[in-house]
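Hi everyone,

Forwarding the result from last night's run.
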Amino acid sequence: MIAERFIEICRYDPDKDVLPYMQRFEVDIDQNDRMVPEVLVRLKSVDESISLRRSCREGIRGSRAININGAKRPACQTSMKELPSRIILRVLPGLPVIRDLIVDMMSLFQRYPST
């Protein structure tokens, strides 16, 4: 079964953009697109300029957290089945934006204890 979704991504490249802006993508979701990152990687294959982190399951908890429809959520644990047909993706508030869905997490990493 294929379902049509509209994904809006907050885009921002500090080298080119004065302000962030929303870009809308129309995408067909099938049974293989279970979690948000799978759809984002597929979108990146359509528009290579989209910037996102791919560090899920690498032991860096929270590095893929984003704002999904107004809620802070780990993208790798968010099922496409639980989201409505319109999905709005933004970076987490309070952290400096490097580009698109990537924030500077150095202040958070410095709080982790060294082992």
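Strands lie at 3-11, 21-29, 65-68, 71-74, 86-90, 97-99, 102-103.

Cheers,
N.
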